[in-house]
């Protein structure tokens, strides 16, 4: 896809990764409908790219708000790119989570992108060539302790992306699944950051993720797994899960300890 010809709905546009994608798309000449509940973090970009960027206020868990996005798409005469980047995450052992946290992850990370895609598919199909981009995670391929519900949502999003790609194989709409590894945004709580620090995990800058996503869109790729050795572990987990079980078993005391630490005792 030619980025300067992209007419985009971008969810999660006010977040760490979404905002960098919005910025890079606008710099490339694309027109972007930035979907999020909050506008504040987008204000500098809205001022910088008044022709390219427009904010649509929407809570993606609400059908009424998703239809507001559709109305905005119709008002600009259609789109050829939908990027589902909104997401929520809670690092905690399953028993520590409230049902409301679990349901929020399922609603924002799974139901919302599926329903948003369904709603906008007729618009995407009208374009000469179009793409749906679903932002998953390394945790969409590796089940990780402390992230059981989040992993469930990202595994679901990966399955949805694969099935949808096959369902749309005889149309002009393609599907790109993106799996970032840990990325420096406010999605990661102090506890999650403390775990990444303790494990010396690689943490990407959101700009790096955005630039890789744009490259994958421009190259019409089908999936994008960010980072080494994370790509290797994804492959290893699918071939030799018992080996990964043993490795993660050793991390379990640390994961359990950090997930239980009160927020005010954790590093920022
Ligand atoms: N950060 C990481 O380490 C990491 C790693 C792998 C994958 N990812 C994935 O990358 C994507 C972006 O993550 P991020 O790190 O940029 O997260 P972030 O900074 O926390 O941003 C989350 C975004 O989701 C939006 N959102 C949350 N609930 C919403 C709702 N009910 N309705 C509409 N929008 C909602 C937020 O917008 P409002 O609050 O303004 O509505 C915000 O724009 C997510 O899908 C995440 O799972 C992140």
UniProtKB/TrEMBL annotation:
Domain of life: Bacteria
PROSITE patterns hit by this protein: ADH_SHORT (PS00061)
Start and end residues of each Ketoreductase domain: 6-182
Membrane spanning stretches: none
Presence of the UniProt keyword RNA-binding in the record: no
Pfam families given in the database record: adh_short (PF00106)
Keyword Oxidoreductase: yes
Gene3D superfamilies cross-referenced by the UniProt entry: NAD(P)-binding Rossmann-like Domain (3.40.50.720)
UniProt keywords, alphabetically: Oxidoreductase
InterPro entries: KR_dom, NAD(P)-bd_dom_sf, Sc_DH/Rdtase_CS, SDR_fam
Family, per entry: Belongs to the short-chain dehydrogenases/reductases (SDR) family.
Protein name (database record): SDR family oxidoreductase
Organism of provenance: Pseudomonas migulae
